[in-house]
Amino acid sequence: MYSFKNDYSEGAHPRILQALVDTNFEQEAGYGKDRFTLKAGELLKEKMGRKDVDVHLLVGGTQTNLTVISAFLRPHEAAIAAKSGHIFTHETGAIEATGHKILSIETDDGKLTPVLIKKVLDEHTDEHMVKPKLVYISNSTEIGSIYVYKELKDLSEFCRKNSLLLFMDGARLGSALCSEESDLKLSDLPELVDAFYIGGTKNGALFGEALVICRELLKEDFRYHIKQKGALLAKGRLLGIQFVELFRDNLFFDLALHANKMAGILREQLTKGNFQFLTHSASNQLFPILPDKLIEELQKKYDFLIWEKMDGNDSAIRLVTSWATKEDEVLAFIEDIKKCLS
Amino acid sequence: MYSFKNDYSEGAHPRILQALVDTNFEQEAGYGKDRFTLKAGELLKEKMGRKDVDVHLLVGGTQTNLTVISAFLRPHEAAIAAKSGHIFTHETGAIEATGHKILSIETDDGKLTPVLIKKVLDEHTDEHMVKPKLVYISNSTEIGSIYVYKELKDLSEFCRKNSLLLFMDGARLGSALCSEESDLKLSDLPELVDAFYIGGTKNGALFGEALVICRELLKEDFRYHIKQKGALLAKGRLLGIQFVELFRDNLFFDLALHANKMAGILREQLTKGNFQFLTHSASNQLFPILPDKLIEELQKKYDFLIWEKMDGNDSAIRLVTSWATKEDEVLAFIEDIKKCLS
Amino acid sequence: MYSFKNDYSEGAHPRILQALVDTNFEQEAGYGKDRFTLKAGELLKEKMGRKDVDVHLLVGGTQTNLTVISAFLRPHEAAIAAKSGHIFTHETGAIEATGHKILSIETDDGKLTPVLIKKVLDEHTDEHMVKPKLVYISNSTEIGSIYVYKELKDLSEFCRKNSLLLFMDGARLGSALCSEESDLKLSDLPELVDAFYIGGTKNGALFGEALVICRELLKEDFRYHIKQKGALLAKGRLLGIQFVELFRDNLFFDLALHANKMAGILREQLTKGNFQFLTHSASNQLFPILPDKLIEELQKKYDFLIWEKMDGNDSAIRLVTSWATKEDEVLAFIEDIKKCLS
Amino acid sequence: MYSFKNDYSEGAHPRILQALVDTNFEQEAGYGKDRFTLKAGELLKEKMGRKDVDVHLLVGGTQTNLTVISAFLRPHEAAIAAKSGHIFTHETGAIEATGHKILSIETDDGKLTPVLIKKVLDEHTDEHMVKPKLVYISNSTEIGSIYVYKELKDLSEFCRKNSLLLFMDGARLGSALCSEESDLKLSDLPELVDAFYIGGTKNGALFGEALVICRELLKEDFRYHIKQKGALLAKGRLLGIQFVELFRDNLFFDLALHANKMAGILREQLTKGNFQFLTHSASNQLFPILPDKLIEELQKKYDFLIWEKMDGNDSAIRLVTSWATKEDEVLAFIEDIKKCLS
Fold it and tell me: What global pTM score does this model have?
């Protein structure tokens, strides 16, 4: 049974584990004050070409989302998110648990635009309603789409004009930035968003998200918020070591490129097989629509999510590739489809 | 510079790292539904001789404390803790951030007793005050003391009689249970407390606390709370693998015994040197009172906390040993004290 | 300028003021422990034919909604509400501020049904999502519709089968129960819902909502929640006196009947004038669709909300009648429409 | 049975009721946008000689405290209060329920000083602890003491130097300002504190606290917070009318003077009788220490709180006077004491 279920099925890239082993007995300060965390911050700032951002390393995505949003908003302020946004549907009300409403927007492709956000702003006119204040986007989105430079630039300008904070969930930022269709660079982000994070968990690390805070005003006291939310790792070194390893050369991007390449093979072959896709994806998540009978056959050898029942006898499934996905298995999967259909 | 500053200065016991390496490429389900986490739960239940408890693996102590307390209490209910309790002073208001007051009690030794708690109950008589509902204790405490069986039994009975939940923070449970002065066994705990956790972070793991919920009523839906607080690790396997390694034989206890042994050498030698201690500690944290001049000398070669300025020219310092503490360094520290004083 | 803008434009029915004057110098216990509040509770229980419910008097609607919902739910549990529900759009995120997500449902008529709720339940399947637990309905709804017995009975049965709490916002319960189309009686409610409130603010009182808790399990410690939310009025007598006055005879219902009668005249005459309505309303809120030109004319003499721009040159407006609405003004309003159109 | 139990045993000053009757049928905008609320704000600004403050009228004290503190603080920030402070002990954790810790200070007289606060600041040094941000004081305090100009000035300067907000709970501000020992004027307050409120509930109104926000930064969006906390009264006119009546001439101060005068008679006579007091009070709350036997006798005719058991056979009781306290009853009380003792 091979799994295309998600991008966190395996452990970590061997270099990460090796780095943990190599540094294991060095005594270091706790809570992210160690030299590895410091070094990781420096490396990331270099990669972004920006010295004036703050970098914090946290363990996971939901944790980062809730720490950021609760730190940035005042009690009456709300976040805006696509209905498919992770914070809206898949975090057990984590944001609301910190006191904030999420205003959701129905979208086709999981992406927000100035037009869509404008409508929400227009509906929120006085103190009987929450005040929209932060725009949450994911890149890549939960359904595989990505933001290109122009789209993000437009969003950024709109947000600034309307005093909205722009926050990017980058749990799958590697795959997004390394997508063939992307013209965004890591170094563009501090210009365009107020905060974002670089997902390690789904791109080669054991765990870890590198939060980058770009706007001066949002930096103050941020470590208090991390601690309060239970997100300050005692052995912060573990996060530091991993991000140093990912960014001391090109490892982070290489891993994302591999994930995308594997998805690319799947996409190409499925397209050749005349299968439709539920959404246009240029990243490591694909949502092909397959006949239910074929799906049943594939489930005998492969693990994946059934995403949505379509009309008739078809369903969309989700296939996720990662840094660890084996090309052999991808090819075998394609062969198995061909066999089933022949 | 050798550090006695805390018990999370190093990485993990080599067996833990090896286990991570060995299992790295196995594909596993996410979010704690992997076979390692399952296995860890089974091992722990065996060690406790109880099948009817629930085990959840979380990343850190503050995270576990806030998830547990917010899950167990209704909005108007409060926790009771010693003033020295971690949740009261060193978690940046994490519990209050989930909406609950902590009623603090001044103690000499960091431990709560029925008499101390009774006083708090007597002061809280009606709906203009919070309703005390959960008693939080640490074992070992933040100042090194431990609970013996009789003390915990008394506390347990008092809590049940008064409809109070009893929750034990076991960030340093290993050291407590393996203390020479302790007659408590891991298997006693499910009888005596409603929930507790077994700290891995400070006893050989990279990170990880094994929460044990003993009371039926408190088990329901607990995974929802973990997820909501950002505490559900995507690669939950990492926690599972570590706890399997710690508990598949006696490793967890062996490591705690080592920490205690190192502390024992320090205690014995300092006592011989006629130094006083701020608190009586039978665990891996010692609080000797040293002349400020001696402290200054020691700081040149050793890292440790200055805990409290005493009258005159003395201060109490905190020395912490761990699974990783080297006996050579302990002996060198003692020698250096002797040298300074001679 | 006469206002049909809402049902809280005037003070209180003169009998209420007189009762306040008459009792003004009697010394009474504070915080709802006075004899008037006690008496009001007894009167309400009599009217409902139920001794086993708990009655609490609170100042306002948002206050009652947030106190109830935060008291009834555990942290991971969510409320379900119509998108038009007051808690979802017009309370500045008051419910979310207590930590709970509201799952909203698009409806035509502002009313929830088992079918609509079932869909939400089906979408919430595991701990990565909130757990739907409480169904919030308004009667009458924010757009004037009402629940008849059969509808509420079905909802009630569905909720019980699915372990959902059913909570009715009765800010306009008087008008709903006294509607010509209603076959519901006040005494039916304790059977059918787990908690509800009887709105005084919009039906003759200066302020005040009488919350009725029908389910045993929800009663415990409720006064703690009231106090914690800042909703325990020091001079609770003021609430008691008002509800005694409203319910010592038929005043509450008489006032609602008057409001409905005034709305009835408007409805009848507008229907005769061949105007359409945005929603079917059998209560004291009407949403007729009028030509924008006519609206402009009417605005010179009357105050009301423009609810929604329709296609073309029409808009729906909201007309609200109350216990204080003068028949003369209603007739004048109708005459003015006729004049404008002639 | 005559009650000295508190200052909210009666309704309102007759002029207040009359004003409600006189304006009852005027149609007004809801939610504090009515002309009376506007007028009340203007009157208060005049009395303070300050046009640049914001005035909001809320229903009660706990409500005001929780709305203010949750609006002013970021999630990791804490309030500082005397242990006897209302928010610390008598609001059922209302502040904590909004997510904030209260750092309490033991005091003799219920008052905070720079020295006392400095100690708390010194203990809070890093992100593992909450960040003290707001100083909460009551004037008069919960045990009857008052702040004189110099004390408040010192506190004010200290707070500004240390970036602390200073917030005064003025539930009994009338009595404090009108105390013989007070040299503070209402018009001093906007200079000295960042926000405060003027208590109506305990000084002649049915209910109502006039919150004054003095610092520009704290004013933004405050109505959102009021609404979110369920504190925006639908018929806001009721608050407006009452505060207009209290401040259109000197009524507010006259009522406070009467309360103080009544307390003065009690104080003078009890002092003459050689009774000690638990605290020095210059306001409308007295805490005389009486023999338990005498207390038992008095309880047959008078209602009051037994505050604290003293050593031996004495207890401190609390006597509260108000605008409504009758001089005859005060004299009778004194006579009854004399009779008992003779």
Answer: 0.97
